[in-house]
Amino acid sequence: MDKLFLIDGHALVFKMYYAFLRRPMVNSKGADMSILFGFTKYLLEMLEREKPTHVAVAFDPPGGTFRNQMYPEYKGTRPPTPQLVIEALEPLTELVQSMNIPVLCIPGFEADDVLGSAATQFAGDNLDVYMVTPDKDYGQLIGPHAFQLKPGKSGTDAELVTEASLCEKWGISEPVQVIDMLAICGDTADNVPGVKGVGEVGAAKLIAKYGSVENIYDHLSELTPRLQAQFEEARPHIDLSKALVTIKTDMDLPVSLEDMRFTGQFQPRLAELFNQYEFSSLRKYLAGHLTGTPSTNTPESVHGPAKNEGPCTVSPISVHGPALLADARKAGKVGLVPSGAQLILAVEGNVSQMPLQEAKTILEDASVAKYGVDLKKTANLLAAEGIALNGTWNDIQLMHYVLNPERSHELAALAQTYLGVSLEESAPATTGSLFDEAPEEEDSPRLREAAVMIPLGDRLRKNCPPSTTKWKSPWPKCWRRWNATA
Amino acid sequence: MEEPLAKVLAQMERDGVKVDMEQLRVFADGLRKELVQREAHIRELAGEPELNISSPKQVGDVLFDKLKLDPKAKKSGSKSQYSTDEATLVAIADRHPIVEEILEFRAVKKLLSTYIEPFPSYISPVDGRVHTTFNQALTATGRLSSSNPNLQNIPVRSERGKEIRKAFVPGTPDGLIVSADYSQIELRIMAHLSCDAHLTQAFRDGVDVHAATAAKIFGIPVEEVTREQRGMAKTANFGIMYGISSFGLAQRLHMSRSAAKELIDGYFASFPAIRSFIDDSIAFARENGYVETLFGRRRYLPDISARNATVRALAERNAVNAPIQGTSADIIKLAMIGVAARMKEAGLRSKMVLQIHDELLFDALPDEVPALQALVKDVMENVIRLSVPLTVECSAGINWLEAH
């Protein structure tokens, strides 16, 4: 059985807008990526989960629709569209099209009309249509082969509305009666006048009993005096209301069913966009789905060998202690991560775990800059062993704190955002062949952490405001001398 | 600046500060006695000899059922009890002496249980000192915070809280505690950032800035400013920095809203530059999504364009406050680094031990005290050249209380 998924892009964009309002996702350039990321992730997850055979996404076009012509006050009570939403339209269109999914955006018509037409025209014995939207207006389109899928908080708890469940919920006998229901209760959000004083429940009850708006007016005398008065008052505009809430199903669509077939193949452009927007956690959806040669436009990544084609992972090489120490001295930098009673040092993709005393010389070497998280803590740990931590400190936690004090400074998240690298397990760290004896118990996650310290530190440093360079220390000589040692 | 500071803080954490346990014990005992007395008194006032004052339910019942202190009070919450939080009680404080007593009781209890009783567990058995941990990446404003124990939280401004300071003593028997405190640093920073001529001049002349503010607002010469007027000006000065509303000011000063509004209008009429500073800060936040301190430390304020007015108002207050608080945090941090550097250069063996609010605390050797004081004052006052001078009050004593 073929499945066509029609997605109300408009509703989804707003859902993402509100979801991220408090905690926007900002990329390393400071641009707000929330809507783009949320939308894309939701879409990808859904595609993976539901595996439709056909997909299309519809957006509301800028400018008005025929409903505004009918009734200028339509949607008049809505606040102006937020800037972020307006700006998201184009990039989203590009993203969706790069997934080889058609984007429908037809001037003069709402997304509802486009999807409604598609659902009506294509649903049939061989094709089930799923309309993905939280909007209750879509109820009118539900049929034996057309369903509504209301998205839940996360991707998983979506509510499926079928003909049966719809009718049972409202006590009506046919989905098309939803139009009548909506005509009566109106819609405050869209500024559609209905019968004043009658809400959803009241409308449902009336329609359940009388079947249609027209029939109600035919039997007006049977209603309570209050209701009679209200319906009388609404008589002049009731037809207009009904027209406004009716979703068009007879539009000529610019795409055919075949155009909407979902191949599961994405264009290389999608990978480029993911890199550009720094959607590293979404890269896993690309694996195996890209046609043509994927572009090698990856962001700065750790110099590790053996990179899988999936997300960039870290694969540090474990080397012999003295070799690493020599490298670090030459490079003038070393990354540190404490591991139990030992220390893991890293430079240029190589790592080495060693007891503290073995690292003493380099730790106390003021010409070698130190990179790590919460170096203060590490320093005190070392001090207890009589080792000083000299050299310039590059503390990941502090650098990110200066960049954004209220975000999490968790290493894994930072590595993802700023380096596009995942600290998850990929392949176990490979050992060099210089060993005489077996290496100590290796602490794989820490090894990976150590490996990203220097690249992450340098990357963050670039983003940091050069605050203290603006400020002239009153005691430059003393300052310099002091800065060189701990 | 954060990384050099980290080194300084590491050292301070290792050094710790000495606490006189005996002193604390005496103080705690005194407090406990006070609690018992107050408890008896409250029970008497309530006519309930078995009353458990720590039970909000029982307290609520007494205040609203028995004494009927607020006819409009209603029960709410999952346990369906009256709200007896501080705000509620403060509002009805003048209706019956028992309310005040309960508030006092709670204050003492909190002091005892939250701050004093846990202290012994923080004292290191090795050196008899308390080693707090300084959190450098925690606050949204850029200020340091400390934990285990949290020293920023100790209510040192209250009468009782001050006693706690007595327990912080030098590490050596004849040593001294030296305290160096920035006076009104935030107000000075606001003067500098807003370039307000009057405020700046007041600081430059070294006059009582609150009195001067009052003089300007009420249009009278400085000598004639009454104590009350000075108090109002002072509350206004600080309130404005934190974005207070006329409602808040009215509450704070126990005046009507319209009177508070008049005061605020008068304030801005006398100090127009501050008005524009506030407006500019908010505008900047709207355009850029963040605000910055003098040193480029940023605070992002996404709520500045929120639809919800309360949420937005908070972001607006932060837009004004964050640059001020942040800059003072920056200055204190830079001063700490400078002090540490100069102390090392001078070969002083005294130690910097704590940073609280706008203050630096030192555990000093008696013969080094004059040099230390001079050095610290010099660094703190000159770490940055602003349009207003930064004054530092620096004194020494046998414990923190004496030194302040």
Helices, strands, pairings?
The complex is a heterodimer of chains A (486) and B (404).
Chain A: E1 2-8, H1 9-19, H2 34-50, E2 54-58, H3 66-70, H4 83-98, E3 103-104, H5 111-122, E4 127-132, E5 146-150, E6 159-161, H6 163-170, H7 177-185, H8 200-210, H9 213-218, H10 225-245, H11 268-277, E7 312-313, E8 317-318, H12 321-331, E9 333-339, E10 342-347, E11 350-355, H13 360-364, E12 369-372, H14 375-383, E13 393-395, H15 396-403, H16 411-419, E14 421-422, E15 430-431, H17 444-463, H18 467-470, H19 476-484
Parallel strand pairs in A: 1-2, 1-4, 2-3, 4-5, 7-14, 8-11, 8-15, 9-12, 12-13
Antiparallel strand pairs in A: 5-6, 9-10, 10-11
Chain B: H1 2-15, E1 17-19, H2 21-46, H3 56-66, E2 75-76, E3 81-82, H4 86-91, H5 97-116, H6 119-122, E4 129-130, E5 133-135, E6 145-147, H7 159-165, E7 168-169, E8 176-182, H8 185-194, H9 197-205, H10 209-218, H11 227-241, H12 246-253, H13 257-270, H14 272-288, E9 290-292, E10 298-300, H15 309-345, E11 351-356, E12 359-364, H16 369-382, E13 392-397, H17 400-403
Antiparallel strand pairs in B: 1-4, 1-7, 2-3, 5-6, 8-12, 8-13, 9-10, 11-12
Helix pairs in contact in B: 1-15, 2-5, 8-14, 8-15, 10-11, 10-13, 11-12, 12-13, 13-14, 14-15, 15-16
How would you sum up this structure, described in words?
The complex is a heterodimer of chains A (486) and B (404). Chain A has 486 residues and is α/β, with parallel strands linked by helices. Chain A has 2 domains: 2-245, 5'-nuclease (Rossmann fold); 313-484, 2-Layer Sandwich (Nucleotidyltransferase, domain 5), CATH 3.30.420.10. Chain A has 19 helices and 15 strands. Chain A has helices spanning 9-19, 34-50, 66-70, 83-98, 111-122, 163-170, 177-185, 200-210, 213-218, 225-245, 268-277, 321-331, 360-364, 375-383, 396-403, 411-419, 444-463, 467-470, 476-484, and strands at residues 2-8, 54-58, 103-104, 127-132, 146-150, 159-161, 312-313, 317-318, 333-339, 342-347, 350-355, 369-372, 393-395, 421-422, 430-431. Chain A has a 7-stranded mixed sheet, sandwiched between helices. Chain A has a 6-stranded mixed sheet with strand order 3-2-1-4-5-6. In chain A, strand 12, helix 14 (375-383) and strand 13 (393-395) form a beta-alpha-beta unit. In chain A, helix 1 (9-19) crosses helix 2, helix 2 (34-50) packs parallel to helix 4 (83-98) and helix 16 crosses helix 17 (444-463). Chain A is elongated and about 95 Å long. The N and C termini of chain A lie far apart (70 Å). The relative contact order of chain A is 0.09. Chain B has 404 residues and is α+β, with helices and mostly antiparallel strands. Chain B folds into 3 domains: 1-16 and 132-196 and 323-404, Alpha-Beta Plaits (2-Layer Sandwich), CATH 3.30.70.370; 21-130, Taq DNA Polymerase, Chain T, domain 4, CATH 1.20.1060.10; 200-322, 5' to 3' exonuclease, C-terminal subdomain (DNA polymerase, domain 1). Chain B contains 17 helices and 13 strands. Chain B has helices at 2-15, 21-46, 56-66, 86-91, 97-116, 119-122, 159-165, 185-194, 197-205, 209-218, 227-241, 246-253, 257-270, 272-288, 309-345, 369-382, 400-403; strands spanning 17-19, 75-76, 81-82, 129-130, 133-135, 145-147, 168-169, 176-182, 290-292, 298-300, 351-356, 359-364, 392-397. Chains A and B meet through helix 14, strand 13, helix 15, helix 18 and helix 19 of A and helix 1, strand 10 and helix 15 of B.
